[in-house]
Amino acid sequence: MASARRQSDPRPDEPPGGPRGSFTVPGDATAVVTGQGTVLSWTRAAEELLGYSAAEVVGRSAGHLLAMPGDPGRAAAGIAERCRAGRSWNGPIAVRHRDGRPVDTVVQVSAPFHLDGRECFLLSGRERSPQWAMGESVLDGFLTRSPLGMAVLDRQLRYVWVNDTLERIGGVTREQRMGLRMTDILPGLQTDAIETVMRGVLHTRIPVSDYEYTGWSWADPHHRHAYSASFFPLVDLDDSVTGVCYMVLDVTDRWNAQQRLSMINEAGARLGSTLDVMRTAQELADFAVPRFADFVIVDLLEPALGNEGPRTPLSAGGPAIIEPMMRRAGLRSVREGCPEAVARVGDRVGFAPPPHDLRYLIGGDPVLIPVLDPFDHAWETEQPARAAKVREFGLHSLISVPMRARDTVLGLTTFIRSVNLTPFEPDDVLLARELVARAAVCVDNARRYTREHNAALTLQRSLLPHTLTGGMAVDVVSAYLPADAKDGVGGDWFDVIPLSGARVALVVGDVVGHGMAAAAAMGRLRTAVHTLADMDLPPDELMAHLDDLVIRLSEEQPDDATTVANVVGATCLYVVYDPVAQRCTMARAGHPPPAVVTPDGEVSFPELPAGPPLGLGGLPFEAMEIALPEGSLLGLYTNGLTGGSDRDVEQGMSLLGRTLARHGEPLEALCASVVEKLLPVPQPDDVALLLARTHALSADHVVSWDVAADPAAVAGARARTAEQLRAWGLEELTMMTELIVSELVTNAIRYAAGPIRIRLLRQTSLTCEVSDESSTSPRLRHARTTDEGGRGLFLVAQLTRRWGTRYVGDGKIIWTEQEIPEHPADFPAPDAVRPGARAA
Fold first, then answer.
1. DSSP for 666-717, written as a single string
2. How many CA atoms lie within 13 A of 445 on its CB side?
3. d(CA 241, CA 200)
4. Distance between CA 588 and CA 639 in Å, rounded?
5. Which of 102, 461, 588, 746 is the most buried if burial means most Cβ atoms within 10 Å?
């Protein structure tokens, strides 16, 4: 119910509401006069017409206002007698202005009514002009046939006079109203609130204009109407309020338009609060009940709930459509539990609204069925379950609206009324279409987001390592926490890469930004690091090559860099650990240094050269080597872990060091503690954490010896290799390993220079290394059938899992790896993974 708006226009020297006895009524000059000719009330329009204020007129005889020839009193008495006969009177009357000049007016006099036991008349008039002289028939019956309903009530708010328009608006006759209150005869209106307003007018004498209220009337009991009323007091000659007069206008059309506009605006704020398809569909149902319908169903096509949408052109002349399968996505009723529904949320449902075919979803307009007939053939025969619900719960009116957005068919929304007895009208279809259109855009946004989100997650999962294993070199655990936990996509990354010679590379990096673009950039860097690591490059050289790659990628980006992943400014830390030498070599590009915890609990952050972030170029990268006793802990992380609004980076690093210093705690528990204590809330950046506990490759897993640069020494190398394999219980590998050693040593003697050395490592695989002082790399050739040589490396490649070359300061190392078969039960196999190791 709209709030009352009080209207007044007092003079500067008058109190609010004007002088006593005055009231504001739009339109003609109006006054209330007793049967004896005494003025009871005087409007502001009357004052403007004749120049007399209410204080000068109220309580005095109206005779001095008349300027009629002859006996004005007798003429006035004749008009009164005619009105007492039950008819109103209208006609020209000459009145006198305050300055003495006559004013020709056209006056309307109502039938008499009684107020506090007095006979009274309501007069209304305006100045007569040539134009109005031609239109007096329009003024005929102003009071009785006015578009405004008018009534006079006494101080007890009982009806004493009603015009014809109010009879027609309310559906209650004049005889049924007389002597009764509004609450006695109009139960469908907000009568208590209206009478409260009228009591306020009687008490304050302040008129109230444009007071809006809604309700049902006896004239139209099936539709809610809206009314705008104005109230003003009636003041007697002794300055006492004798009653109240009100005028009312049916403003249903305007009110309905305002309500529809308000509902559409509210729907824009209420729908689409999340990027979830099912939730958005339910929001539409929740919003429409009960303000628009009593029962709402939202069914979505199954493709709209998945990763792809049904891209169907909106054309009625398209190809035949296969019957669509929909799933119930939203359901709401004014009845608890939605007993009207034949399917629940999540159930598969067929095409619902009869009698339209399937093309209705693609190009059809909303369907309005003002009156449902459950016995119609389309319902009773084709959908008997729904027809039974229609009869059981009195579902009587329906609107079905196809849900489409951006040329995408999404589903169907159905609005039904049962408790609300007012049937849907054509104007309601416009509102239903607008509500569904807004919801459809939100559903399509959610569908597109779901598709892109799933694609991003798939990309992220494919780029990050599924399992981490450090072999016999390290035990590793990890944690990855994107800034947007809901999306799960970010630019931070980590990796553990097995290298030759039982070594392992630990990598952590940070790409600028979040989301799919950052994830794509991270994937490119991770692939590049894997490729460079396979070349067995030292950490500083690897960083230089990675920096060159990022510069080339940035040069390939189009001018609109917002559409591609920006890899410039990414940071990276690359660490190589050798379990044989128990040493660690590392280099970084603008990344925080690693945390190192020795077995005795001492924490440090090695001051290795920072190096510039990737993609800047121009500055060299430097490597640093440190000793790591067995049982040391390495912590690699991104700056999102140590930074935060409540602390600076140094404080974060200090807290990280204290947390990692817990000696003997399992890696999984230690990783969880770090995340719990250091993760900022709220989390502004992605976080990646990689913890590695080092192991040493003991002497019984490594053996090496020198070989003379003499072809005769090859036989001795084969014999010593066979002897070592027997000691390790790997007799099955003797023949292949002897052939590998023979070929590699022979090539070193033939093509290299300096001392030659053989090293065998037994871990999860068998590694054979032959080193020399030459920097020439061997080349795998495919010998022709007529060639006497050139098949050595080809045989090596066929007999091993992988092989390669790594350069060291004084030459190169050619290495091979072989799979170790299952060992006999009486010979213990080397530990594949140390106890407690786990891939994160």
1. -HHHHHHHHHHHH--SS--S-EEEEEEEE----GGGEEEEEE-SSTTHHHHH
2. 14
3. 12
4. 13
5. 588
- Residue type at position 714: V
Burial class (CB in 10 A: 0-12, 13-18, 19+), 412: buried
Cis peptide before 354 (omega within 30 of 0): no
Tokens coding 521: 């950039």
Distance separating alpha carbons of residues 209 and 245, to the nearest angstrom: 12
Pairwise CA distance, residues 824 & 342, whole Å: 66
Q: How far, CA to CA in Å, does 198 sit from each of 27, 180, 283? A: 21, 15, 41
d(C-alpha 250, C-alpha 146), whole Å: 12
Lookup result for tokens 């929001």: 283
Which DSSP string do the residues of 627-675 spell out, in sequence order?
E--TT-EEEEE-HHHH--TTS-HHHHHHHHHHHHT-TT--HHHHHHHHH
Confidence of residue 833 (pLDDT cuts 50, 70, 90): very low
Lowest mean pLDDT among 465-469, 571-575, 758-762: 465-469
Positive or negative: CA dihedral 726, 732, 738, 741: negative
Query: What was the pLDDT predicted at 835?
Result: 34
SS3 at position 832: coil
Residues 6+ apart with CB under 8 A from 740: 768, 796, 799, 800, 816, 818
Query: 398-418 pLDDT, tens per residue?
Result: 999 888 888 788 888 999 999
What's the full length of the chain, in residues? 840
Quote the CA–CA distance of 366 and 351 in Å, as a whole number.
15
Tokens encoding 192: 């208590």
The pair of structure tokens assigned to 200 is 């306020």
Alpha-carbon span 260 to 432, nearest angstrom: 10
In which residue are the tokens 């490594």 written? 702
User: Measured between alpha carbons, how far is 268 from 440 in angstroms, rounded to an integer?
Assistant: 11
The answer to whether 820 and 733 are in contact (CB under 8 A) is yes
Q: Please report which residue ranges of 322-470 form alpha helices under DSSP H.
A: 360-363, 377-380, 384-393, 426-463
Q: Based on the number of CB atoms within 10 Å of its own CB, is 784 exposed (0-12), middle (13-18) or buried (19 or more)? A: exposed
CA distance 620 to 607: 16
Beta strands in 342-383 (DSSP E): 348-349, 367-369
pTM above 0.70, yes or no: no
What contacts 337, CB < 8 A, 6 or more positions away? none
- Closest among 91, 764, 260 to 469, alpha carbons compared: 764
Question: 825: number of CA atoms within 13 Å, CB side?
Answer: 0
Number of H helices, E strands in the chain: 25, 33
Q: DSSP letters along 22-82, please?
A: EE--SSSEEEEEETTSBEEEEEHHHHHHH---HHHHTTSBGGGGB--SS-HHHHHHHHHHH
Task: Provide the token pair at 706.
Answer: 């020198």
Token pair for 322:
């296969």
Q: Which of 130, 134, 56, 60 is nearest to 97 (CA)?
A: 56
Residue 260: which H helix or E strand, with range? helix 252-270
Decide: 496 and 577 in contact? Cβ < 8 Å: no
473 touches 504 (CB < 8 A): yes
Q: How far apart are CA 814 and CA 154, in angstroms?
A: 115
